[in-house]
Each structure stands twice: as structure tokens, then as C-alpha cells.
Amino acid sequence: MFDQLYERRLRADIETWIERGWVTREGAARILADRGKADGRSRLPLALATVGMICIALAVTAFIAANWDDISRSVRLAGIVLLVVGANMVAARADALERPGLADLATAFAAMVFVAGLSLVGQMFHLPQDWTGGALLVCAGCLAAAWIGGSRLTLALAGVAAIVWVLLGLESGAPTTMGDQVLALCLVPAVAAHAVIHPARLSRWCSILLAYIVYLQWLLSAGPASMVDSPLFAVALAAMAGSIVLFGTAADHGGIRPGSVGLRLLARSAADASLVLMLCTMLVAFIGAWSRDLPGPELLSPAVVLPSALLLLAALAVLRRLERPQALLALLGVLGAVMTTAVLGLAPDQIVVHAALALGTSVAVAMAGIVMQQGLWTLSGHAAFTAVALWLLSETIGSLLGQALFFLLAGIVLIGMAFAASFSLRMAARWADGKGDAT
Amino acid sequence: MTDAGHPGAPAPASARATRPSVRSATARGSVRWGLIALVQLCLIALPLLERASVHWTGEEVVLAVRPVDPRDLLRGDYVIINLAIARLPASLPGLDRPIEAGEIVHVELAADAAGVFQPVAVHTRAAEAKGPVIAGKASYDRTPQEDLSVDYGLDAFFVPEGEGRAIETTPPERMQLVIALTAGGRSAPLRLLVDGRPILSDAGF
Fold first, then answer.
1. Which of A18, B7, B49, B174 lies most in the core, judged by the most C-beta atoms within 10 Å?
2. Where do the TM regions start and end (chain A) (predicted)?
3. Residue A188: partners with Cβ closer than 8 Å, 6 or more residues away
């Protein structure tokens, strides 16, 4: 769907560029022909095949779950070996026929057969339900297949298994061992590097999510005992997300060498995800989900000091790489969000200060989006502003008449935000035009 | 049809030139995906080898059980082996200290008059026990006054589809579980007994 929207927009823009003499007719024809090769419709068979592959893998799993006792264990074990080898040989054949999409799909199917094989072995030999250990084995098998076979879909499976492994370890309540932490830390680059070398949106988002969950695991072990309920948790989360937003923005706008397209895409996705996470953390802190007591000495915990130091380094990187209005607005938005989150814990009863900081931060993020032509920044800033405004209104109004007034004001605010968004988009277009003319 | 298109005819020069590269691509692909298959099969074999080592080196121990019948989405019907020794009374020697969830404990066992093994003490290391010892993981945090809940990893006995319910309705006092127990405390289920007769058996090795 997005490909088709982009295609439509490109056709409209390219006519304008031809009229202005920026692109020749021949050049425009070549650009459109090149886009035509990557027509979104050509992905339909592969998408259907992916769903079909998942259905077949589920069929294999259900067949295994039937627990057929009529067939001896040795035959069943041989069947697992044949299925795993056969599925991988189908992938090898697809690769030899130079059908990379099919090879990717077949490798992912083979990985699912491997998971089903693990389940069957567990069933046949009455292995205990060790979901944590199972997730780690699945992760290892899928990661090996993803790297050796260059399969993006299998990498996504490995990423999901790694996330499940870390989450199950946290959920068990047992203290995280150093070995587990080191292993989790090694899994992040193993997944992310694949997403850089073989760029794919799914694997990029898997690696970003995994990185944050591993960070959560570290926070829980490095911070004080009641970290999750403390505002320290919100500050540590916002500071890390903020530093990734700034590093990602510095890398994206400051220009990583053109050869690292995958790295640039990963930096952009990480910055996008972190921006949303940072603003969500600020908003959740704002509505008071965390306790409002922030003990002084625990501010010096490594769980707070390290992400804060990283945030300062990221701020320096942004100042060095970005132009002045971009850098200042980005810093104002990001540092403002982190500071708001911290002040909510440090000075719990200062509602006017909280509201001013949160609203100011939201506006700064939206403005940074306008000058950097980052639609997500603009949208997130407006959304955060609306959420803060609505929360303030709902908190200050109680009676039926008050509720009527609240809904009236809420409607006016939303319509006002719609106008603000429209104005921002026009400003962005005008700014881009001005910059284009200047060059 | 031209000669070039006939099955018996010699291939055109361009086709002859591409054939070795297709063959080498196929060979390379076979090696790569063969390696993937090998890695995945080794990973499947890992838990199998661990279980086999318990079967081969462990001694048989009889435990009292209380089974229920749930269903595993991926692996079908199974009987939860709810061991009588899964809940240890606070008065047991070795339980006069706080224990954190996930901590490994070693429970020393001794046979009663009926030949069923009962817990007699809890140790931090298997070597501290005088008799057979079974290793388990504390399910929850506990203070010294509380009973201890332990997970021994003996929680599932898979059965053919539909048979789990019948086992669940059997009175628990008639049932026992025979396990293989190594000197280090590792364990694996061997047989589920009703009135001393095996109704489920795991003798795969």
C-alpha cells in the first residue's frame, strides 16, 4: 500500500520537476521504469506464500502434537532428521535457481520445522517444560540459519525467540546471572548486524525491540531493588531513548557514508522508535503511573548515571553534526522530555512546572520535526501536546457541567491541533522550498 | 522445433558456459544449507543427550504424585506430574534460611516403609547429602517460616491425545512415579504406576 502511495506521489512530483527543468524527460522515464521493477504488486505472491508457509508449519506442529504412538521413536526421530534436512535442501535449491525470495521463505520454513522438531523431541522424551531454555535453542538455530542462509525472515524468528528468552528470564523472578547478561548483550549485535547487512524493516524493528528489552534487563539488575516502581526507571528509560534519538538523528542527518544504507536505515528506525518511547515515558510519568518519591542517593545508581552520560555525549554529537536550528530544536525536545520525566519525580507537587515542561517539550519536538522534515517528529510532538492538554483538562474538571466544558474544550483543542498540524506541514513545505531555491 | 531445442541435441554455447556455474552454485548452496541443517539437528540433539545421560547413569527412585491433565498447544496432551515432594514443610532440616525464587536446592530423599522416597533434608550442594538427592529450583521467594515450593523439571508426562483425562480421574493415592536419579541430583521420569503397574513408560534409550 505504501509503495503505491509513494508511486503516485512520485509521478505527481516528477511532472513538477520536469516543468522546472530539474529532471529531463529521459531521466524521469528511467526513474519511473526503475520504480516499476519494484512494483508492490510483485510482492503479492511472496506474501501469500509466506502465509501459506506459516499454515503448513502449523500443520506440522499440530501433527506432532497429536502424539502418534503407533510409530516407533526411532522412526519418528528419523522423520525429524529428514524433515529438517529436506526443508533446508529445498531452500538450497531455491537459492541455486536464483530465487532469493523463495530461498528466504524456504529457510524460514526449515527453521519452523526445526522448532517443531524440538517440540517433538520434548514430547517423545517427556522433557520438562523449560520455555526459557527452549527459546534460547530456537534463537541459536534460527540465528545460525539467518546468517548462513542470509534469510531475513529467519532473522525475525531469531529476534522474536531472543526477545522471548530475555522476557521469560525476567518473568521467572530469578536473579539474572552475569552469563545471561553477556549472552543477551551478544545477541543484540548478532541480530542488528544482520539487519544492517540484509536490510529489512521487520528485522530492524526486531533488533531495536531486543536492544530495549536487554537494556530493561540490565536496568533491573543494575538499579536499586524497587527500580520498576521508582521514577528512576522512567528517567533511565527516557535518557537512553533520548540518547538514541540524538545519535540516530546525528547519524542520519550528519551523513553516514552512502555504502552503509542498512546502517543508515537502522539508525533512522532506532531514532523513530526511541522518539515514540521517550515521549510515551514522559506521558506515562505525567499521568502518575510511577511513584512520586525519588530518593536522592539512588540518583547516583549506574542505571541512571550511565544513560545520562550517554545522553550528554549524544547532545555533543548532535551539536557537532547538525545545523544550528535543527540541533537546537532537537536538543530542546529531547533534553526537555528527559528533564520533564526527572522533574516529575524530583518535585512531585509542581503541576504548573510539569505542565509547562511537558507542553513546551511537545512543541519543541513538533518544531524540530518541521525544520528537519521528519513527519514522525511532528506527528509525535502534536500527539504528545494533545495528550498532555487533554489530561490537564480531565484532571481539573469533575461535575457534569464540568464534563460538558471538558468535552467542549477537548473538541476545540483537537480541532486547534488539526489546524496546527496543517500549518506545520505548510511551513515544512515552505522551508524545504526555500532551502531548495538556496541550493 | 530447432535442434537446439531437442533433448538429445548439444546445448548451445551460452548454455554450456552457464551450466558449471549453476552446478557450483548448487554445490555451494548444498554446503551452506547442509551446515544449517547440521546446526539445527545438533541443537535438537542437545536436550536429548542430557536426558539420555540421566537414563543411563541414574538409579531408580519411586515418588508419590498427584496428576492433573492439561494440554500443551505445541506438544499435545500431557499429565502434569505434581510431585508430593514439590512442597517441602518449613520444619525440614536445611530450611531455616530465606531462599530466593530460582535458587537451586538439593533435596535429600529416603525410602519409607512402602518403598516410596520422602524428603528428609534440604542442602545447597548435592555432596552434603548422605543418601540420594534430587535437584530442583525454588518456585518463589520464601522466609524461614514458610513451606518451600520446588520445581524439579519432572512436570510433564506426554500421553496420546485423549488419554490424559482418564489418568487425571485415577485416585492419586494409587499412583506413583518412578524416576531415574543421578548422583548429582539430575532426574528424568521413567514410569507412571497405578497400583504398582506401569501405565506410561519412557524407556526410549
1. A18
2. 44-68, 74-91, 103-125, 131-148, 153-170, 182-200, 207-226, 232-253, 265-287, 299-319, 326-345, 351-371, 376-394, 400-425
3. A207, A210, A211, A214
The answer to whether residue B102 sits within a structural domain is: yes
Domain boundaries, chain A: 236-413
Note down pLDDT in tens along chain A; length 439 residues: 456 667 777 887 888 888 888 888 888 888 887 776 554 445 566 666 777 777 777 777 667 666 566 677 788 888 888 888 998 999 998 888 888 888 898 899 899 989 988 888 887 777 777 788 899 999 999 999 999 999 999 999 999 999 999 999 888 766 678 888 899 999 999 999 999 999 888 899 999 999 999 999 888 888 776 677 778 888 899 999 999 999 888 877 766 555 577 888 888 899 999 999 999 999 888 877 555 565 566 677 788 889 999 999 999 988 887 777 778 888 888 998 888 888 877 777 777 788 888 888 898 898 888 888 788 888 999 899 888 888 877 777 666 777 677 777 767 777 776 777 677 667 666 666 665 554 4
B201 near A CB under 8 A: no
Cβ neighbourhood burial of A380 (10 Å; 0-12, 13-18, 19+):
buried
Q: For residue B68, is it within any domain?
A: yes
**CA B195 centroid distance within chain:** 25
Cβ-based contacts under 8 A for chains A and B: 150
Cβ–Cβ contact B25 with A under 8 A: yes
Measured between CA atoms, the residue of chain A closest to residue B40 is: A141
Where would I find the H helices in A128-226?
Answer: 131-149, 152-171, 178-197, 201-222
Residue B21 inside a domain? The answer is no
Range of the domain at B106: 58-201
